[in-house]
Amino acid sequence: MKIAGILTIGNEILQGYTLDTNAQSISEELNKRNIKTTIHLSIPDDIFKIKEKVDKFIIKNYDYIFITGGLGPTHDDITKKALIELFETEIKFLSDRHTIISKKFNKVNLPKCQSEILAISNPLENSIGTALGMYFKFKKSEIIILPGVPIEMKSMLCSYLDDIKKIRKVTNNVITINTCGIYETKLYEKVKFFISKNDKHIFFSFLPSYEGVKIRLTALSDQANLNKTKNELVKILDDYAYGIDKVTLEEKVSNILINKNLNLSICESCTGGFISKSLTDISGSSKFFIGSVVAYNNLIKQKIVKIPKVTLDKYGAVSKQVSEKMALNISKIFKTNISIACTGISGPEGGTKEKPLGTVFISIYYLDKIKTKKFIFNVDRKSHRLMTKQASLYMLWRILKEI
Amino acid sequence: MKIAGILTIGNEILQGYTLDTNAQSISEELNKRNIKTTIHLSIPDDIFKIKEKVDKFIIKNYDYIFITGGLGPTHDDITKKALIELFETEIKFLSDRHTIISKKFNKVNLPKCQSEILAISNPLENSIGTALGMYFKFKKSEIIILPGVPIEMKSMLCSYLDDIKKIRKVTNNVITINTCGIYETKLYEKVKFFISKNDKHIFFSFLPSYEGVKIRLTALSDQANLNKTKNELVKILDDYAYGIDKVTLEEKVSNILINKNLNLSICESCTGGFISKSLTDISGSSKFFIGSVVAYNNLIKQKIVKIPKVTLDKYGAVSKQVSEKMALNISKIFKTNISIACTGISGPEGGTKEKPLGTVFISIYYLDKIKTKKFIFNVDRKSHRLMTKQASLYMLWRILKEI
Q1: Which residues of A touch B73 (CB under 8 A)?
Q2: Which residue range forms the structural domain that includes residue B191?
Q3: Count of domains observed in chain B
Q4: DSSP string, A48-73
Q5: Which residues of chain A does B307 touch, with a Cβ-Cβ cutoff of 8 Å?
Q6: Last residue of a domain, which of A244, A269, A291?
Q7: ipTM of this model?
């Protein structure tokens, strides 16, 4: 198996101003092609350090060395300068390319450096921005230099891997099972015995987050039968397992709604539009999603969603009664067969003794039936909204599966 | 100035399944306290590699060495094992702590390892989860070991820095100016001359994203007058500069709405709830945000937002006329003095010759006036929604400043 090292360059990364997503993107693409990343390293815009670290990577004989960042036109971009010194080469200006790219982006004064590469390298074209990438072989390593802007980096990486090197994606040696509705400890109890029987050829890891726990199965040898084990595990996990690999609850729910020709409306309170936003992130959501009301203020609950004032006064806005009425009424007003409603206290203020901070009611209306659940998510505001969003989609998915 | 090295451990990071946010969080906190991070390193769950890299960090005399990941209860958590071997120490079980934490989290069978630390270390308590952290001095380095779950890691990190080490935050030697509504090239043109006059003591860097371009000013010497330079630059940037450091457009807009005692409603189409979601991310948004309608389907635009069918038919849903009517009507229906409306084609499908993919109309209604702008954001669906969200808030901010 070929191995790779990734070097990301930028003061802003080390200062904590910028989250480096490039190392992850590169590893992900390499992993799909059976190339193993064994190191991520981030260093500042410092000529000496860049030279030192790239040199070390070469000594370690990585098959691939990926370098990102510091190729832009501003004065802090010094990656090329460092590499010229290290590889004792010079700059090559691609004037034809410069003319073409200046025209394409309609830039009269595009800095010359945007079309300059190391003389020993091949250019790697950028279909999105102006900075050129480059690649070349040095000793045992293939060195690939890419700009730091994530979207440009990713597109150039894929064109390098797919078009230039023709490195095909392989059948995955990793499968991830996505679960929701169950905490890590309980989940681990549930599958402990199964894992202990199967951990000779497969490595199991648990990745908890506020959207659920993922169980990752990695094949350790050719004798591992990932698919079979995955299927058995999914059976044990039952309804907690909603999807495999990158499949999200949003996608699961969308697909069922489209396939069953159902339509959906939403009435959100504490989530403030988050559920609608996350479902419309998916292209094609217009096939089932009609619309929603964010009834943040109680007057909107009354006036638009037609929750009787007496109900609000008697039970409070955060109550089973109001939540159910929200779901029921939004489906009537928006004329949909399915609806989601939620009302809760995301904080940081607003908790009471009977209804502590974190309390939330979620209702799903479906084909003249209604289901409501109460949760207390004792977490910060941001996580509370995320957990409420996810719990709503999980409840909806469970129901949609059965109808 | 003290320096720090950060080591994050986890196969899932190197495989590209998990985005490592811990290195950034740690650097950010250290930066606030004038401790300079000079390296981020991620390696797999591999005893040999962990030992090798921690050893190298110690040889390099980092003042602080932060290690995260691999402290959990599952079998793939081997950080402690590696460190025990490296430091030739043993495990110490804190039984009192174990009793307390089992009770607190109501867990009968909490694994013993969750209360085990290296015998040479001090425990670092976890107020959110069950895994203990630890810290100790070794040669010239202070070594701090933290769990990989970001929210636990961050809270323990801050309690280590603030409570245990009492490392105070310092006046910042970095200021960031956040801009919107202008592309990087044009922005650079605008400030190039100013920068060239001021770059002796201050380093300027440009950080573009779909939410705008940030200009970061870093003091290079004691003679740098960051605040004065920032003020001058903000003056040149005029209305493009909306905030300093972590200030978002959401916060700016919220504060003005609250201070001027105004209230807001939103009618979203292509953004599907994103604008409402991002404003309600802020706690206290209930002081000005009344609610919104996500009119995804044209029937909702007609029936709920009362856009006449003739207007929709004549001009199309993505038009200045419909956008304005959406803003106007939502403010009437929700009885607010301000409203935002947007309607556009986020893609990947739906573009026409006259209205290409990426076209979007944004309207702001304010105190009986209305302002509409047309944009063509020629980017992918996700970025289109993000740019539309940001452009809406930027338009609103510009208007709110004047009224």
Answers
A1: 188
A2: 174-244
A3: 3
A4: HHHHHHHHHHHHTT-SEEEEES--SS
A5: none
A6: A244
A7: 0.85
